[in-house]
Design goal:
The longest helix has 32 residues. By secondary structure, the protein is an all-alpha fold. It has one domain. Helices cover 82% and strands 0% of the residues. The chain starts with a helix and ends with a helix.
Length: 249
């Protein structure tokens, strides 16, 4: 039996319909073959890392060499799983989501997210070990600009932010799954608007993780230590996240 929005709210507070949106970020980061972005994934990743760290020529060359086999393996092993995930999302949306679908989506996203980060950690740890104080400062400044922008957006009234969240969810689903029917749009909008307003908790959690990363980068570090810390932050979130964040998601 499908869940009406009023019955869905509390359950979604834990299992988050935003699994769909988070999965989209995962797919975009990975350079999914479902879009033309995958052929440019190495360039996109290098551009993004350079934005945050102002790479040296040596770092850029080393990252480019590491990305080639990493993306090739990811394309072969992980992309088929993403495609199957999206096909099932489409099918479940068409017949109407149930509470079991939400449980399935959460578990599947969590597994795919952990797999993606587990692939990135080894090479990412080597890179972060090479980051110098100037680049740490560059990262701090970039994150501060983003946090300042987020703070301004968070000043908007909750109803306005929730309305934008619902609109963004529908846009994302249509980008990845194709056109939705009016009934599907209405159902998704109702569910999204019924979800608890957890944005402040999520922002606080993100900034906490940023600070943990900066603290790590300000200290002497080895690839092994960086890998251990990254896994705690990115893969084992359920074990290391604050209780407020775990309650919210």
């Amino acid at each position: 039996m499908t869940l009406p929005a009023t019955q869905y709210t509390n359950r979604a507070g834990r299992h988050r319909l935003w699994t769909w949106g988070a999965a989209g970020l995962l797919l975009l980061l990975a350079g999914c073959t479902l879009t033309s972005a995958y052929r440019y994934a190495d360039w996109i990743i290098l551009w993004q890392v350079d934005h945050y760290f102002d790479l040296t020529s040596e770092q850029r060359h080393d990252l480019a060499l590491r990305l080639t086999p990493l993306l090739a393996q990811h394309r072969h092993e992980a992309i088929p799983q993403y495609e199957a995930f999206l096909v099932q999302i489409r099918q479940r949306l068409e017949r109407g989501l149930t509470s079991q679908d939400i449980d399935w989506a959460y578990a599947t996203y969590d597994r795919l997210r952990a797999d993606l980060f587990d692939r990135l950690v080894p090479d990412g740890s080597v890179f972060l070990t090479s980051v110098d104080p100037r680049q740490v400062q560059t990262l701090e400044e970039a994150l501060q600009k983003e946090n300042d922008k987020t703070a301004r957006l968070m000043q908007a009234p909750a109803p306005e932010r929730l309305k934008k969240r619902a609109h963004a969810t529908i846009d994302w689903l249509e980008d990845w799954l194709g056109s939705l029917s009016k009934d599907q749009e209405a159902q998704i909008r109702a569910w999204s608007l019924a979800l608890p307003d957890t944005q402040q908790v999520l922002v606080a959690y993100r900034q906490q993780r940023q600070q943990e990363l900066l603290t790590l980068l300000h200290q002497p570090r080895t690839p092994e230590r960086v890998a251990r810390e990254l896994r705690a932050m990115l893969i084992y979130q359920d074990q290391t996240a604050p209780q407020a964040y775990q309650d919210a998601v």
